[in-house]
Amino acid sequence: MTKVFVNLPTSDLDRSKAFYEALGFSINPLFTDENAACVVLGENIYFMVLTREYLATFTDKQIIDPATLDAEGRIRDLSGVIAEITPAQLVGEALEALKAIDPASLPERGRRRYRSSERCAQGASLRACGG
Fold it and tell me: H or E element: which one contains 15?
């Protein structure tokens, strides 16, 4: 049986664990410590939320800041608007403010264009992508 693990960076591991538990996911304590938490999505699907510093030890690539895509699939930098997506930014007025952002008004981050289904989770008018 194949197991799938996806790595995601965070600047606040405890807050991230609380966020995913509030969404109804469980944390597997066998793969959780002060550097990372294993979020169980399904029987064989997990994602690891790792501190940015710890994730950086796995790769020589830059750990990117929050970003979105414009209509042409160009990565746009959200870090001037939001430092990290948290539960508070995904409800009420904060969510409406995020939806109102015109991605074309944000600085471009990189030249690679992504198809809407490639490495991205779509939601409302924004797409959050990992790099």
Answer: helix 13-22
13 in helix, strand or coil?
helix
N residues, the chain: 131
pLDDT per position as a tens digit, 113-130:
444 434 444 343 334 444
Instruction: Return contacts of 13-17, CB within 8 angstroms, 24+ apart.
Output: 13/37, 13/49, 13/50, 13/51, 15/86, 16/49, 17/49
Is residue 82 a contact partner of residue 98, using CB atoms and an 8 Å limit? yes
C-alpha dihedral (23, 10, 68, 6), degrees to nearest 10: -70
0.90 surpassed by pTM? no
- Look at residues 36, 79, 38 and name the one whose alpha carbon lies nearest to residue 57: 36
